[in-house]
Amino acid sequence: MDVDYALAFDLAPVGLCVSRNRAIVDCNRQLCEMFGASRELLVGQSFLVLYPSADEYERLGARMAPILNAKGHYADDRIMKRASGEVFWCHVSGRALNREAPHEAGIWSFEDLSARRPVKAELTAREREVAARLLDGMTSKEIGKTLAISHRTVEIYRARLMRKYRANTTADLVHKLMAGS
Question: How far apart are CA 53 and CA 148, in angstroms?
Fold first, then answer.
């Protein structure tokens, strides 16, 4: 049986794209639908257009590089931005084609988690980063190390998140973040 790899890429049930230097070289239909943009608008664009802020794009790129360099692959849940400006939770995983130059070229998949995890509260970029790590089960010290901030600063952001989500405990906050309420 002959396999049409171009058709398989285009019709995959998750968003897929090929990147070069953090820019979209090619993408499939599902990625276009997920982000609400045509292929013509996405191809050639920096991944920056998919992020809620330039700051998050820069920080995440800097954090991913050593992991891609060491392991060759990377995955996380993060908040991304549709062309309409709507933000949503997304599972992103990717593989560097050259571990020595991790952003040089890669293949990435995107899965829209918004049906299971809607974004309800207005969060700052740093609150989104802390929230994503809390959902990964990380402690304040682990989050601080990952984000290169003190664990006390993480606790301040966690307290803000708890107020915004009206949570009484960290477990309650995680539950509400997952439920989006």
Answer: 18
DSSP structure string for 74-117 = EEEEEEEE-TTS-EEEEEEEEEES-TTSTTTEEEEEEEE-TTTS
What pLDDT score was predicted for residue 42?
Answer: 97
- Tell me the backbone φ, ψ of residue 34, rounded to 5 degrees: -60, -45
Are residues 17 and 100 both part of a single domain?
Answer: yes
28 pLDDT more than 80: yes
Write down the H helix ranges in the chain: 5-11, 29-35, 39-42, 54-71, 125-135, 140-147, 151-164, 170-179
pLDDT at residue 180, as a whole number: 59
For tokens 């989500």, what's the residue? Answer: 165
In contact, 35 and 44? CB cutoff 8 Å: no
* Torsion (CA) 49, 53, 57, 63 in degrees, nearest 10: -160
Q: For residue 37, what is the domain's CATH number?
A: 3.30.450.20
| Owning domain of residue 152 | 125-179
Asked if residue 79 has pLDDT above 80, the reply is yes
